[in-house]
Structure formats: structure tokens, C-alpha cells
Design a protein that fits this description.
This protein has a 7-stranded parallel β-sheet with strand order 3-2-1-4-5-6-7, sandwiched between helices. Strands 10-9-8-11-12-13 form a 6-stranded parallel β-sheet, sandwiched between helices. The relative contact order is 0.12. It has 14 helices and 13 strands. The chain has about 375 residues and is α/β, with parallel strands linked by helices. It has 2 domains: about 1-170 and about 355-375, Glycogen Phosphorylase B (Rossmann fold); about 180-355, Rossmann fold (3-Layer(aba) Sandwich).
Length: about 375
């Protein structure tokens, strides 16, 4: 079987949620199924391709698909033409978009419907694109995958006319997120926070990640506890980040806030493992890989009690109202004051993280590929 894979977000320089999910699955499938051919289709050349092997081909097809006109052309004309020429048996679309013109069976992953719930966080053009095109994509795709039971129910509720198969295949923590020794933690803290303990927030700086309320919560925590605790944001400046940066300039505790920018995987793994606790207080998530990665690294986590996050965290995390900085601060304080509870959450988190594995995800994804092709 020849499997074409949309790889436009397989960018080694800025690999984030969607990319990590797809790369982690296809690294395993390429190794597990050496008699099948995998063609990864990029929209721009890279110095490094993330998946390689004797059964792998990497193809670059322009123009870059980063804006709506580019999306339309790439999915429906340039990439569709190449997939046809390749005589692919299936085209995997991991990002919630698919080609409306291709006759090749398409397996599409829809991570979430954040645009439905928080349309104010995207541009007018993007809102139009999602509103008009998403039902067309859902209708066109041969089979559908999503990443949580929450997202499955949300998709079914928002688009009840779509009756085709919708399979949940959750992500997992990458292998390098592991507990660190005391010495390793000290080295990381010396490098990033002058040796002090820190709360860690992972994700691109954008309104949906709720960074301003996290700042407000950190301010309350610092007022309640005259500690040297730091707050570290690990992620690129994504979109609509200007307000956050302006607020940070006048933030009373700005010297206790660290912005690392985008970190390569090994550095992010070390930073995660060294954190006193992780904060993942997004307004909305289809899954939330950093939650599982923090748990696997032996770090307690405070998460928002919305969307898919209770499904991911289970009983192994503390929950807070994303729109109420005081409840976030109270949970930060709980971890700070109760070392026994913190240790209990660490152990529960390690166990909870084991319920999500890339091996299981890859097995289920292969079953969807086979079903999309219609062969056994």
C-alpha cells in the first residue's frame, strides 16, 4: 500500500501539538510496516526531515500552505495533483483540512472545534474558512479520527448530519519526558531561573492558552507567599500575543517571569522534569499533550476544568476555573503548602500517564488506514 501523508506541520524548527501527534504515530508505523510505502508531502523544503527509512519518500510541493488562498491551492490543486501522480492508495490529513477535489480516499484527523467555541481568537477570514469549509471537509473525508471522547462528542453535536465513522485515538507523552534526579533539576534551575523553583506553562503565547489569567494567579500566589518562586512560559509567540507582552511590561513580578521562546525537544523535556509544578489552564483543548508529558516526568499539574482536560488528567491533577485567577492561585498554593498531597499527585500522575501510549495510538491509526483503503 502507498500511503501519502500531509506533512506541512512536520517542521523541526517549530514542531507543536498537531505535528508531535502525527510524527509520533508515523515514526512507529514506518518501522512496523516496512513493506508499505509512506510518502510525506511537505509544502516547503526543510534541512531535516523528521521521518526517514527505506520505505519513506519525502516530497516538497509548493506553494507554502500557510494562508487561506494557499490552503485552497495546495490541498485542491498542487498537492492533489502530486498525490494522484504518485498513485497513492490513501491520503492522510492530520490537521482538520482535506482536499475537496481528490478522488484518493482520505483519512482526516480533527483535533478540536476551538473555532466554534472561541471564534474571537482567530481572524475574520479564518472564522469564515472554518465555518464554511469544515462541514465540507467532514463530508468529503472517507473516515474521521479525533483525539478525545470530548472532541468526538463535540463534533457529533456540532455536525449531527455527519454520520460516518469517528474514532478516538489519543496522543501520549514522548519518551524523553521522565523524572529527573535532584542534581539534574538543580542544573536546569540554574540555567533558567537563577536556581529557584518554578511553575511551568507550556504552549504558544496566545489568548486561548489563557496566559493573562495565569499571570494574575501568579501575582496572587506571590502576595500570599513571599517566596522566590518563578513562572516560566515555554513556547513561541503564536498569535495575538501583543497584549500579553504589554501587560508583562508593567507586571509587578515581571522579574520572576521567564519567557524561553520555542525550545527544541530535549530542552523542553529537561525544563518539564525540573518544574515544581506545571500549569495548563487553557480555555479549550482537544487533548493537551503537555499534561501527559508533565505527569510522565513526575511533575504535579494544575489544569483547567474544561473541554478534554478532565478526561486527560483524571484524578491525578488539580483543577481550576480558567476564568478565575483566584482558583488557579489557590491550587498553586495547595501544592506549595501540602508536600504530601504533591507527592501523591506525582505518583497518580505517573500511573495516569501510562494509560496513554503511542504504541496503542499507532495500532489504532493503522486500523483506520486499512479501513480507509478498504483492504485487510
Amino acid at each position: 500500500m502507498k500511503i501519502a501523508v500531509n506533512a506541512i506541520f512536520f517542521n523541526p524548527a517549530q514542531l507543536e501539538g498537531y505535528g508531535h501527534y502525527s510524527v509520533s504515530i508515523f515514526q512507529r508505523l514506518v518501522a512496523q510496516y516496512p513493506t508499505h510505502e509512506f510518502v510525506f508531502i511537505y509544502d516547503r523544503p526543510h534541512q531535516q526531515y523528521l521521518i526517514s527509512g527505506p520505505n519513506v519518500q519525502s516530497v516538497t510541493v509548493g506553494p507554502a500552505a500557510r494562508h487561506i488562498p494557499g490552503f485552497f491551492y495546495w490541498y485542491n490543486i498542487s498537492a492533489a495533483s502530486v498525490v494522484k501522480q504518485l498513485k497513492a492508495d490513501i491520503w492522510v490529513q492530520p490537521y482538520g483540512f482535506c482536499s475537496l477535489t481528490s478522488s484518493v480516499p482520505q483519512l482526516m484527523v480533527v483535533h478540536d472545534l476551538a473555532f466554534k467555541h472561541f471564534p474571537q481568537y482567530i481572524s475574520t477570514a479564518q472564522r469564515w474558512h472554518y465555518k464554511v469549509m469544515t462541514p465540507k471537509f467532514l463530508k468529503k473525508a472517507t473516515r474521521l479520527v479525533t483525539v478525545s471522547e470530548f472532541s468526538k462528542q463535540d463534533i457529533q453535536a456540532q455536525y449531527p448530519q455527519i454520520s460516518k465513522s469517528l474514532t478516538v485515538i489519543s496522543g501520549a507523552a514522548r519518551q524523553g519526558f521522565v523524572p529527573l534526579s535532584w542534581e539534574q533539576k538543580e542544573q536546569v534551575k540554574e540555567a533558567y531561573t537563577e536556581g529557584y523553583e518554578f511553575f511551568l506553562c507550556v504552549g504558544g503565547i496566545s489568548p486561548r492558552k489563557n496566559m493573562l489569567n495565569i499571570l494574575k494567579a501568579f501575582s496572587l500566589f506571590k502576595k500570599w507567599h513571599k517566596s522566590n518562586m518563578k513562572l516560566v512560559f515555554a513556547g513561541r509567540l503564536a498569535w495575538q500575543y501583543q497584549d500579553f507582552l504589554e501587560k508583562l511590561k508593567t507586571f509587578k513580578y515581571r522579574h520572576d517571569v521567564v519567557l524561553t521562546g520555542y525550545l527544541e525537544e530535549s530542552l523542553l523535556q529537561s525544563l518539564t522534569g525540573a518544574a515544581y509544578a506545571a500549569l495548563y489552564i487553557s480555555d479549550f483543548e482537544g487533548f493537551g499533550l503537555p499534561i501527559v508529558e508533565a505527569m510522565q516526568a513526575g511533575v504535579p499539574v494544575v489544569v483547567a476544568n474544561n473541554s478534554s482536560m478532565p478526561e486527560v488528567g483524571g484524578e491525578a491533577v488539580l483543577y481550576a476555573n480558567a476564568q478565575d485567577p483566584e482558583t488557579i492561585a489557590q491550587q498553586m498554593q495547595t501544592l506549595y503548602r501540602d508536600e504530601a498531597l504533591r507527592e501523591k499527585l506525582i505518583q497518580k500522575g505517573l500511573a495516569q500517564a501510562k494509560t496513554f501510549t503511542w504504541e496503542k495510538a499507532a495500532t489504532l491509526f493503522w486500523e483506520e488506514i486499512v479501513a480507509t483503503k478498504g483492504v485487510s
